[in-house]
């Protein structure tokens, strides 16, 4: 801490006299009209403020990074582009650009000193990412991820870094999978009932299953969902028991809540006077946008 005290008039005169007495006549002539006192408290205070500002600003970038204002949607097996950009219209060609998930290292993709750094990349993304280098001159960072999987679902971070500091933005990737066309198998059950089973696979996120009769009435059913450990996709097995064969047709629809789309299949049930049967495969599968 620096302490400053203003000198009284008597102290100032005494200091001046003492200073002049210690100088030679030639030095006295050179000091005419010049202040021989140390800097005032205000100057010292200003210097300290500038130093404090310099230290506090260290590591902070003079730019910001932003991404899209809403989640990016991608389909399983397709490619997706993730994009973020600088707030200032400046070139980012000399900056380090890092795309990462939970931890900065290893990265989803890293561009440093004008080249890609595959040796610092997560193994899950090796051979799957491409960085659009032309975008750096336009203050943009565009990353393409190929062959999107369920495990890409979630947050991504885009970080720009230069010598004076860094800034980053967070993006949300939502992955969706539209499964296979449902198939209905119909079997004669016990006690004259009819058992129908609807199967499909390749869904993400968790799908919704619904059975209806020919009148459009919803039928109670039992549905089991399993997740593949290798793909993360859902498989569906749904069962319904019909006691009245006169219901005519059955429909099984499976919908993706993220895509607002559903796959539907209809199957015809034999009536009371029909011959005995063992198995009937569904007819007329179709995709319906809700």
UniProtKB/TrEMBL annotation:
Ig-like domain residues: 77-170, 182-264
Gene3D superfamilies in alphabetical order: Immunoglobulins
Keyword Phosphoprotein set for record: no
UniProt key word Membrane: yes
Keywords, sorted A to Z: Immunoglobulin domain, Membrane
Localization terms from the record: Membrane
PANTHER family attached to this UniProt entry: BUTYROPHILIN (PTHR24100), BUTYROPHILIN-LIKE PROTEIN 10 PSEUDOGENE-RELATED (PTHR24100:SF133)
Official protein name in the record: Ig-like domain-containing protein
Species of provenance: Felis catus (Cat)
